[in-house]
Design goal:
The protein is built from two helices and 17 strands. With 302 residues, it is mostly beta strands. The chain has one domain (2-13, 45-301). The protein has a 14-stranded antiparallel beta barrel with strand order 1-2-3-4-5-8-9-10-11-12-13-14-15-17. The chain starts with a helix and ends with a strand.
Length: 302
């Protein structure tokens, strides 16, 4: 189901940037003071903050439960350490949490949280870091129940093949022992159509972009959001300390503005087609109806 939904998003999608950069004026230089950088101008620190709100919708097969809204927050900080050529070791921390407006003691927790270290080997393209191997050891839990069984270490292995200057293929795999699908294949492409249009059909955020200038981007995007967590103790044997795979399928229209090459603000509005609570080993699966959502994100690298 996940692959079908993601493929549908990719099929709808058809971030390009101008080559080269104009020289900074005196006033721009004052606004953009020199910062410490690695080889090829690579930033040594990276920060990513984003949050979203999905309006309330009823959960099918649990209509008496009422309407449930979702709040999502994520904060990530990375130190980028040069290894050789354009390859970097990225180490840092990621905090990710889903909160829900309505919950109960058995099936629907009030929050899903992951607190994980980030260890990645990445390639600096001149514009951004592309992780080749990424490990996220940490605790993945519901409510405030953290036990030794909450520890998990999902990882992602991904590589690219350059077909030509405009087209790159991406292949890889994501492994998550807590997930309903332990191994999830990754396949996609990045196609620079011209200086204004770009297709990035890559899991989990495919995107079709239009760039009227080097600072502004309009896009149509899709996203497979969510994660896998160890549930806490409950009175229901099906969900007691069980694994919970939470997923959400989204599509949106958005805008991104670059204040400078490595500092950007993104906002989008869209529709969440489905949210799913899947206790895949124990049996119960619950799906929430679609609802509109809004998202805001900020990225900075220095």
């Amino acid at each position: 189901m996940k692959i079908v939904m993601l493929a549908s998003c990719m099929a709808l999608l058809v971030t390009a940037a101008f080559g080269g950069e104009a020289q900074l004026t005196a006033s721009e230089q004052l606004l953009s003071p020199p910062v410490e950088q690695g080889p090829e101008g690579a930033p040594l620190w990276s920060f990513d903050f984003n949050g979203s709100y999905t309006m309330g919708s009823r959960i099918m097969k649990a209509g008496e439960f009422g309407s449930q809204a979702e709040y999502h927050y994520e904060a990530q900080a990375l130190r980028n350490i040069h290894l050789f050529k354009k390859y970097y070791l990225q180490v840092g921390f990621d905090h990710d949490q889903y909160q829900f407006s309505r919950s109960n003691a058995t099936l629907f927790p009030d929050s899903l949280t992951s607190d994980a270290a980030i260890i990645a080997i990445s390639y600096w393209s001149g514009d951004e870091y592309h992780p080749i191997l990424k490990l996220e050891p940490g605790v993945y839990y519901t409510r405030n129940h953290i036990t030794k069984n909450s520890f998990n270490m999902p990882f992602r292995l991904q590589g690219g093949v350059k077909v030509n200057e405009q087209l790159h293929l991406v292949l890889g795999v994501e492994i998550d022992l807590f997930g309903s699908a332990i191994a999830f294949p990754i396949a996609g492409f990045n196609w620079k159509i011209n200086d204004q249009f770009n297709v990035r059909a890559i899991f989990p955020k495919p995107r079709l972009s239009y760039l009227p200038n080097k600072s502004l981007e309009f896009f149509l995007g899709g996203e497979l959001a969510g994660g896998a967590y160890r549930n806490g103790p409950t009175t229901d044997r099906r969900t007691n300390n069980a694994l919970l795979d939470y997923s959400e399928y989204r599509a949106c229209l958005g805008i991104e503005y670059d204040f400078r090459k490595t500092v950007s603000l993104e906002a989008n509005l869209g529709w969440s087609f489905e949210r799913r609570f899947n206790y895949f080993r124990a049996g119960p699966v619950y799906q929430a109806k679609g609802a509109p959502y809004a998202q805001l994100g900020f990225k900075a690298a220095f």
